Amino acid sequence: MQVSGRRRRGPLVLTSLAAVLLAASTGLTAAAKPRPADPLQRQVDAIHDTGAVGVLAETTSPDTYDSARAGTAERGTRRPMPAGGRFRIGSATKTFTATVVLQLVGEGRMSLEDAVERWLPGVVRGNGNDGSRVTVRQLLQHTSGIPDVLPEIPALNSADGYRAERFRTYTPEELVGLAMRHHPHFSPGAEWSYSNTNYVLAAMIIHEVTGRSWAQEVNDRIIRPLGLRGTSTPGAFPSIPGPHARGYAAFGTNTSIDVTALNPSMAVGSGSIISTTHDLNRFYTALLGGRLLAPAQLDEMTTTKPAPELGVRYGLGLGEIPLSCGGSYFGHPGELLGYHTWGGVTRDGTRTAVVYVTSDGGQDTQRAMNTLVDQELCRTQVSPLPRPPER
Asked: pLDDT-based confidence at 309, cuts 50/70/90?
């Protein structure tokens, strides 16, 4: 079942990461076949054709808005994808965390050059890991060398592990301790390697600097001021509140299972936020439009360096991806068991595009998601549409 929707808009206010960004850098597209006239619906259908259970996308520009969906909200049913459905945004959470850190830097409460040891004494230690040699900047930039904790989380790595531990609660300290079982990948600052542990540590530093939790700071500094009504920091709550589609994961096998229920505490700071395409577009518009960060901090965030394992460039919580029409855009893919998202925003914050799917995304799915974002951000001739009401 395929549905396309257009609505009024209110005021603007992990392992898969490498595959998604690598697909973004290649510029490959899905096989051509007859499609509907609406370019966004055509791209959504192309994603659905790669095997995704459900797909929903939304794009915005100063005077226009478009959305499209395909597939179903639950496998084996005809229930359509909810137009304002919520989903786990996975690593797109990192942009929220980096924004809060940079706000604190702008307020003079901390520095990007602070050693992790200053704020978290004794936490990054053992097996060659040394928090006195790692800076906050290196955490946000993934140049710390600190090992990734996700391979240590059974619920994320096999169907049996998911069934046994999907409701388990982790503390940030426990997560970092699991990562410290391993040697660092390289000396701090020497190379680039994606690690979710970096952002767990960033969340812990936010707590130490402010005396308030990462979730409280994200809510008070970003979610409430921007009116992101479908966005939440769920803590250890295993359900997705409000309308949502079911999520499915195959864990590298040929059989996928329903993974909608999940305690996201293993992804605090790095991947636990729940949101909507509408809210993510508002967030990206506000961020690149200068509403959340002062110019100096936004420059820090968008100053990128090569990320060789991804084939693109990476700043502080944002990737920089080439556009097929010239130039580049900023964004961050996300995945947390059964929900994959890809979103992007032009450098001036005037055009955004966000898409998510509710099942594992292979290379064809990821490539088609990137193609959608690329083509929507490259579009310059779009019929003006009225803005949708606030949700």
From this structure: confident
